[in-house]
Amino acid sequence: MAHADRRGPGRDGPLISQRAAIVFLLAALAGIGATVLAALAGNVWPVAVSVGGGVVAPAVLFFNQIID
Prior knowledge:
- This is Integral membrane protein.
- Keywords: Membrane, Transmembrane, Transmembrane helix.
- The protein is elongated, with a radius of gyration of 17 Å.
- By secondary structure, it is mainly alpha-helical.
- The two termini are 18 Å apart.
- It has two helices and no strands.
């Protein structure tokens, strides 16, 4: 089925789809959660942020596969 063109004359479409926005939101929340947990475990902030950043890429791959 063809999708209707949501862009009218003089209008721009969305930058990313709703699915992509949800995937990136969940990945960001997973990264923030990992950062907080690493900081609460006694790691210094640079290490905690590195842990959180390392969680984001696998979380994007994971949520991209399970959200269909």
